[in-house]
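[audit] Reproducing an earlier prediction to check determinism. Same input, same settings, fresh worker. If the tokens differ from the archived copy the diff job will pick it up downstream; this log only records the rerun itself.
[audit] input (353 residues):
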Amino acid sequence: MARAMEESERKASLATADAVEARGQVDALVAEAADARARAEEAFAEMERAKLATEAEAEARAAAEEEALRCSALTASATAETAAATAAAADAEARAAEAKHASTSANASGAASAMGLEAAEERQGFLVRRVDELEGLLTAERAERAAQAAAADAREASMQHELAAAREERRTSMAEVRGLVTQLDAAREREETEASQRESRQTWGQQSDGQQGDGQRADAPLAVPPLPSPALALDSLAVSIPVSERTSGEAHWSYRVTVCCAGVSFAILKRYSDFRTTHARLLANGLAARLMGSFPVLPPKRGWSTQNEEFAERRRVELQAYLCSLVAEPEMRSCSELHSFLELGLILRRGTM
């Protein structure tokens, strides 16, 4: 700002010097004009030159006035520049104060930023430690899950082994059951055969006695009328369970099964366990798979505490429906397991004679 003021003062001094010089020139011109006037009086011939000098003097005065105006303008301009320089200095001071305030704010902001950076670094360290901790927990959990999966695989393998062993045992048991059933059927067949032979011998003896009394030969053959063929006999097969009964002193109920086949009717007593055994034999024979949905369902087993007369009557009706459903199936009527249950061996053998 001082430099600008010095420059303005220098320009003002130069303008003043120019004005003084111009005024000196004006004075010189005035002197010349006076000299011209004097010479004009001396010589008329020089009148025109004097006139011209007068005009030059007028022009010089105009130029001097113009120069004076220019000096005044320069002075006003210097004053304005001085005011502008003063305003610029004030503005510079204001800017300096603002810069100082900004520097103070920047320092405060820098301190706050440093504190925030320190807090951020501390938070980052905490997060890193937390991530490490979580990764450790995840690794431990994965190891535990792997151990559990290995244990589960081992248990599954053990269960598969036990299941295979149980299936093998079941197949062995089924084979044993089939063997026992076969043996039982063979025993019943032998018993029925022996009973049939005893009945035939008794009948033969009675007829022989009668023939001997009539004078006939004792060794004449016994005339036993043949029954229909087994297929025709089984077509006429009908069953019913008219009554249930309990023997005195026994806890179980028995069911009287009436069997009608080829014109022969007889009754047999069966317990629920006999029905269940026959049902198991039919299942083992594969009839359930062949008959699909038409294979009847055996009534479920109940506890002894519920086996009163009302229970026995309801069970009788259920077993009769079950037995009639079995007999209604043509493939079931030709099944040897059902023949053994209904004790049809003697009738069917006599039908083949």
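[audit] rerun output stored. Observation attached for the diff report: Residues 225-350 form a domain with the PX Domain fold (CATH 3.30.1520.10).
[audit] end
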